[in-house]
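To close the section, here is one more complete example, presented without commentary so you can practise reading it yourself. The ligand is adenosine monophosphate.
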Amino acid sequence: MTFDCFKLRPSILEAITAVGYTTPTPIQEQALPLALAGHDILGLAQTGTGKTAAFALPLLERLASGPRGHLRALVVAPTRELAEQIYDEIVSLGSKTGLRAMTIYGGVGKNPQINRLKRGAEIVVACPGRLLDLMNDRHADLSKLEILVLDEADRMFDMGFLPDIRRILSQVPSKRQTMLFSATMPTDIRKLADDTLTNPKVIKIGLSMPAETVSHALYPVPTHLKTNLLKHVLGITRTGSVLVFTRTKHRAKRLAQQLEQMGYKATSLQGNLSQNRRQEALSGFKAGRYDIMVATDIAARGIDVSSVTHVINLDVPDTADAYTHRIGRTGRAARTGDALTFVSPEDASDVRDIERAMGEKINRVVLDDFDYNTPKPAGDILNQRPPRQPRPGGAGRPQSNRGGGGNRSNTSPGGGGARRSQPAGGRSRSTR
Ligand code: AMP
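Output:
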């Protein structure tokens, strides 16, 4: 199937070609005809499946005809990073439509956003808090909204945004097209969907695509040797872009600094960074200026870097849901990727949760050439087991709509050495 099968105008088809998409992903195949026909959509899918284009293309097609100069489509997303990514995709796919898009989120000045609203952007991609601010100050007028998209609704719920979402919903016209996407369907999201969508068409895309292309492995290791093991693995594995997850901001920052000192092009993405530094880290990682990004879950939510070859969980994610989200960063859109999770004996119950949710046991990998018996040095703070982040009311537990995946090929690293910055080997990569 090609994109020509859908009723998209030539200017949008040209942009799809320019972006380099040739074949629609499963969610696009399912969602496009329905959304183009004007149906409400309930999409059970997560990032990595191509869901952004699945809602962006119908949105652009609808807006390409009709009035200009006022807000007609709103996409609400949980994080600034995700909002930026959605915005980028809308701008790329809509490059020949003349429609104007903008982002609205906190942590940056309000005035540029107010000015862009005044100039009459037709599409807004927003995080809930700042959008509400601007609505309350009467800068953002949603009274002529035609399309509303709620993306990663479960994550917005986890982050406590549901009351904000409901306030936003109270100010949009009831006659509109709504698309709601969520990786999981807890009761509150089901209720939100019931309240928000009219006769929705339900589209369910499991983890099938990323899972097909991602191999998982657990690396048992004492907590105090995790950093050593990471360095060892990086040394013996041929990697592209590597995303390392830690449980705390401090650990992310320290580890990135250590890797930098070792000559790796590494950066961190964690909540303590200013908006500018976050953006610099993210765009640097996307553009290949950094080979390794060490991130925390919240900071890395929705990161879309197609060239991520390895996700390394230095700390086991708190929930199986967080695990699938983390590994969704690699193997995106049919590329292959490896997900390595370092597990210490204390992680046993988290590992059981993850395996239960994946429906399979994950391979354990023990490396012959790594010394697992090095004793713990005195005063080793970095390699202590970090505290758990609080779970909001147990939210974010795995839901039954998860796709399969799990125990695929053994991902024991092999092949050439990891790249360090000194040889400065040039490398071509695409960010999309
Ligand atoms: P998303 O799930 O929207 O975050 O998309 C995941 C990745 O797939 C992004 O890097 C997109 O640019 C890419 N992508 C989306 N649709 C397609 C497609 N039809 N062909 C190839 N790549 C795609």
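Once you have examined the tokens, check your reading against these statements. The chain has two domains: 3-208, 214-387. The two ends are 21 Å apart (CA to CA).
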